[in-house]
What we know:
Layout: H1 5-14, H2 23-29, E1 36-44, E2 50-54, E3 64-65, H3 70-77, E4 81-83, E5 86-96, E6 99-108, H4 114-134, H5 140-145, H6 152-160, E7 165-167, E8 171-178, E9 186-193, E10 196-204, H7 208-227, H8 232-246, E11 252-260, E12 265-271, E13 277-280, E14 283-287, E15 309-312, E16 318-322, H9 324-327, H10 338-351, H11 356-370, E17 379-386, H12 399-402
Antiparallel strand pairs: 1-2, 1-6, 2-3, 4-5, 5-6, 7-8, 8-17, 9-10, 10-11, 11-12, 12-15, 13-14, 13-16, 16-17
Helix pairs in contact: 1-4, 6-7, 7-8, 10-11
Amino acid sequence: MVDAGDAVRWLQLAAPRGGPDDLPLLVNRAAPAVDATEIVIYLADYQQASLVPLLDAGLDREALPIETTLAGRAFTGLDVQRAADSPDRIWVPLLVGCERMGVLEIVSSAAGDPAMNEAAWELATCVAQLVVNRRPYGDVVERLRRRLPMQVAAEIVWGLLPPLTFATDDMLLTTILEPCYDVGGDIFDYALNGDVLSVGLFDTCGHGIKASTLASLVVSAYRNARRCGLDLVDTATSIDRWVRSEHPHMFATALLVELERSTGRLRVINAGHPGALLLRDGKAIRELPGPTALPLGLGHLATHRPEVYEEELHPGDRILAYTDGITDARGVDGERFGLTRLVDFVNRALNDQLATPETMRRLVRAVVAYQSGQLDDDATALLLEWRPPHAPLSHLRDRTTTGL
């Protein structure tokens, strides 16, 4: 019977003594403990288009496209995958919580053993955690995930972002942004404190370094206000003052959200941002009212303080927020991607039972393809789903029984 316990314990003891470059060798040394001859780590690139191998000197692998391979199917479907013509090889997703990092390839004569699935999940969970824990101590993971040179503006933004996906038993939040290597003006942040999930989505004016510098200030001011315990109105006011003080000729649109997980009560300030959409039962019910405040940095022109809009969510409701780079993307005929196309795409994907992170990955790929691979503006989308404990997230499975 295959058991990953010894391999996991050995890796947890050995990995902290090395850098991220050492992980491929360490993982392969653990292979015999799960009756494997080879174990290879593949990480998703920034665009989530390819799975790129993190190799030691003794192995040879090529990057694999996510769209057309079994490895990609494991990544997108969050399932263990086997090939009929290669029964000794399995692919298992690398997950940290619900954040998809890549896949683990395991080559083993015991791949067909039913016990291998559980062992593979256990090992993959350990490896994913080790990648996250060791990543800050070197650049190998960052270099590997970059298929193109990253501009300094994008370096600033990506260095400030939280994980793209976060979930608890009663909510899931997932985001996506493009262009990965030249993004500058879009940024987001979130935090869960007790019963309240706080989310901020921002779109700064301008492009390049100026936009990313403002984005850095905006998200830092947002975090500072939140950590000081300010309410939504005072948070918006604080960010507005910082923008006006440090960048008097610039501004940022924003969507500031608070969700009470126990009740489903949603509070929103829309500071000159495109309106978020309420999705229910596979349909767009309505656009949330807005703007309820001027863009951040222009608050001194307002005649009243920012207003908070409240909504009582139903179990299973989703909030879809986005920046104008999504809807304003233009095809070869000059037609905008538009709100109707955005809602239709998301609803069809969710109705097809795609996991929410996969829905967002496909959305941004569709927007990029619509604009022939070259976006004129940053494009960011965010999807927040609320389900109380008695109505668990349908696409999140109990890790103790199914591997996630």
